UniProtKB/TrEMBL annotation:
Region: Disordered, residue numbers: 1-58
Domain of life: Eukaryota
Primary gene name: LOC100807488
Key words, A-Z: Kelch repeat, Repeat
Protein known as: F-box domain-containing protein
SMART domains: Kelch (SM00612)
Bias (Basic and acidic residues) ranges: 7-23
UniProt keyword annotation of Repeat present: yes
Gene3D superfamilies registered for this protein in UniProt: Kelch-type beta propeller
The organism's taxonomic lineage, starting at the top: Eukaryota, Viridiplantae, Streptophyta, Embryophyta, Tracheophyta
Pfam families listed in its UniProt record: Kelch_1
Single GO cellular component term: nucleus
Signal peptide location: none
Length: 408
């Protein structure tokens, strides 16, 4: 295993508690002044104002350090979104600003994006990990009965904008649950025009595309685009080939559906490229990474990830990673994968792009019988693969059912 880059601290183990909003106008104004002085200091980087108030931990009541709303918003844009919960508790103006989603929309336009990993090792439970700062969070439990929702079909997940969408099937119909980063709550999401499972999906900013999948025993070629700002689905032209159990990525501004199973039940080795400008699909032969032999049982969709517009794939059987060469339409060996994590024909193993890095999440059972999950990371821009262990944690399971990366 690579070097241990950072473990979660004891503080990370405790749920964060936010202070109650004050009903005292004077106290609330004082808190706003305190935030203004903090933001003014943050805005100066390492060069603090000569006469800035000292950090005493007390409320600063000097009105001359109260910055205006535009400056406050400008500084908030560049703070870690991990701090937004604490900031929202300072006063109602900041709470309203953060919950409106406007802050994230402006961040997106300015290219200020943080990528966090959301993954589930228990059917209704989700963990969140910030790979830059090493913070852990635990989402509220999904408000549904697992035996009504996720035992009749596979559970799919997709992070887009400030939403985490989880797709499943209840007894009579497909369902969608939506987690909102803005409210920290789950609710029923907007259903696709053609509800399905086992589809390819990927997001880019506030938009996401789903393609293919299976519905009522039929393998589909249907594709749809979701806009998280408007919460609407738009039906796109059908793919050239119907496919399920495929993977999706965005690369060079285009969407790709890779691999999967075709209508005849055979494994597809091609991919398809969707151009959002021309609204056309193009088949790309041999886009699926090679393998020595197939598994004995059902195989997971291709484990693929795109970093800096370069496509990478994980071979779970040989525990190696390959890179796709667009100009030659072939795959080349890059290096090995982190040791220790196990999978079942690729299931239970997460291989995801997370900003400028690739993260691998996998589990193993310790000698003491505990289920341990490890998160490893590699930044391609830094050279040949050298995996860094970002975190190791017992979370009650070591099989990764779902994983998505939210960038906002």
């Amino acid at each position: 295993m690579g070097t241990l880059e950072r473990f979660s601290t004891e503080e990370d183990e405790r749920p964060r508690k936010f202070s109650k909003l004050s009903d005292d106008p004077e106290e609330e104004d004082a808190m706003q002044i305190d935030m203004g002085s903090l933001l003014a200091s943050q805005d100066q980087g390492n060069d603090h104002p000569k006469h800035a108030p000292k950090k005493t931990g007390k409320v600063v009541r000097d009105p001359k350090w109260l910055v205006n709303e535009d400056v406050s918003t400008g500084v908030l844009l560049h703070l870690s979104r991990y701090e937004y919960g604490s900031i929202a508790s300072l006063n109602r103006n900041f709470l309203s600003l953060i919950r409106s989603g406007e802050l994230y929309r402006v961040r997106r336009k300015l290219g200020v994006v943080e990528h966090w990993v959301y993954f589930s090792c228990n059917i209704l439970e989700w963990e969140v990990f910030d790979p830059i700062n090493g913070h852990w969070m635990h989402l509220p439990r999904m408000p549904c009965n697992p035996y009504d929702c996720f035992v009749f079909s596979d559970k799919e997940s997709l992070a887009v904008g400030t939403e985490l969408l989880v797709f499943g099937r209840a007894i009579e119909a497909c369902i969608v649950y939506e987690y909102s980063l803005l409210t920290n709550k789950w609710s029923h999401g907007i259903q696709m025009s053609v509800p399905r499972c086992l589809f390819a999906s990927a997001s880019h900013g506030e938009k996401a595309i789903v393609a293919g999948g299976s519905a009522e025993g039929k393998i589909l070629s249907v594709a749809e685009l979701y806009n998280s700002d408007t919460k609407t689905w738009e039906v796109l032209p059908n793919m050239n080939k119907a496919r399920k159990m495929c993977s999706g990525v965005f690369m060079d501004g285009k969407f790709y559906a890779i691999g999967g199973m075709g209508e005849d039940g055979n494994r597809l080795t091609c991919g398809e490229e969707y151009d959002l400008d021309t609204k056309e699909w193009r088949v790309i032969p041999n886009m699926v990474p090679p393998r020595i032999q197939g598994p004995d049982g059902p195989e997971a969709p291709p484990l693929v990830a795109v970093v800096n517009n370069v496509l990478y794939a994980a071979d779970y059987a040989q525990m190696v990673m390959r890179k796709y060469v667009k100009e030659r339409n072939n795959w080349v060996y890059v290096g090995g994968l982190p040791e220790g994590a196990s999978s079942v024909n690729g299931w239970g193993y997460a291989f995801r792009a997370c900003g400028d890095r690739i993260v691998v999440i996998g589990g193993e059972r310790t000698m003491g019988g505990e289920s341990m999950v490890e998160i490893n990371s590699w930044i391609p821009a830094q050279g040949a693969p050298q995996w860094n262990l970002l975190a190791r944690r017992c979370i009650g399971g070591n099989f990764v059912y779902n994983c998505a990366v939210m960038g906002c």
